[in-house]
Amino acid sequence: MRDFSGDTRLLALNTATVSKQWSLEQCIDGCVRHGIGGIAPWRDKLDACGAARAAGMIRDAGLRVTGLCRGGMFPAATAEAHQAALDDNRKAIDDAATIGAECLILVVGGLPEGSRDIADARQQVQDGIAAVLDHARASGVPLAIEPLHPMYAADRACVNTLKQANDMCDALGEGVGVAVDVYHLWWDPELEAEIARAGAAGRILGFHVCDWLVPTTDLLLDRGMMGDGVIDIPKIRGWVEAAGYGGCSEVEIFSQNNWWQRDADEVLATCIERHQTVV
Ligand code: ZN
Q1: CATH architecture of the region 11-277
Q2: 278 Cα to the center of ligand 1, angstroms
Q3: Ligand 1 centroid to residue 131 C-alpha, Å
Q4: Edge-to-edge strand ranges of the sheet holding 249-251
Q5: Residues pairing with 42 in the sheet
Q6: How far apart, in whole angstroms, are the C-alpha atoms of residue 101 and residue 35?
Q7: Rg (CA), the chain
Q8: Which end of the chain has the least Cβ crowding within 10 Å, N or C?
Q9: Ligand 1 center–CA 149 separation, angstroms
């Protein structure tokens, strides 16, 4: 495994981690001051800054863009909503290309309004990705399916295991890969084998880290700092690297009662320290 002690360039800041404290401009500046090598913006912050302006700032700062969050949300109850989702994904692909993102993260979406048919939702996801895939390929933006923990199957992502994501990638072909987020996948008994499978296909596009707190007090906004929870992060990183992944660890922490309440520079310093010791 790679040695991260003393290294900050292989750490990337997902802007969600300081989403309540900093704008994208401040995140870029913070990464530079702390020596963090990568950034992964969310689209609300990117829109507030302007994609072209952000692209220039990120380039001047010498940061890599480990991903743009997010596209996806494909399942829809009406033809209008379906078309709006495809249009939004094409716009996200364009923005990802503008800022030189290594991938567009897909939070694929859950059940459409009024539906109980999760198999149909999953098919809509696959069809939706297929519909925008030519545009992604032409734009040079790989699409990263991010399986989310099953507690989000209804409202955020009906792709919940890496096996499902790998199967979808097999069906879709070139230009689609996966993002491995320890928060969503740590519990899966098939994780090691599916990481190896993804690596063999050359499709691991991102590695996201945070931690699973016990107890978790909010399904969405109570993620832990690496080392504060129960995930064996080094073990999973070892599997990912053994599968050929050589990119950054992207820290993505939604934490309304803890890390979002702290000074953002303290948050970044803690991310660096934990990345060097427990990731
Ligand atoms: Zn993630």
Answers
A1: Alpha-Beta Barrel (3.20)
A2: 18
A3: 23
A4: 64-65, 38-40, 11-14, 249-251, 204-209, 176-181, 143-145, 104-107, 68-72
A5: 69
A6: 19
A7: 18
A8: N
A9: 10
Going by C-beta distance under 8 Å and a sequence separation of 6 or more, which residues neighbour residue 67? 14, 40, 101, 102, 103, 104, 105, 144, 179, 205, 206, 250
| Spatial contact of 267 and 243, defined as CB atoms under 8 Å apart | no
Q: Encoding tokens for residue 276?
A: 């060097």
Rounded distance between C-alpha atoms, residue 224 and residue 207, angstroms: 16
**For every one of its 279 residues, what pLDDT tens digit does the chain have, with 9 covering 90 and above?**
999 998 899 999 999 999 999 999 999 999 999 999 999 999 999 999 999 999 999 999 999 999 999 999 999 999 999 999 999 999 999 999 999 999 999 999 999 999 999 999 999 999 999 999 999 999 999 999 999 999 999 999 999 999 999 999 999 999 999 999 999 999 999 999 999 999 999 999 999 999 999 999 999 999 999 999 999 999 999 999 999 999 999 999 999 999 999 999 999 999 999 999 999
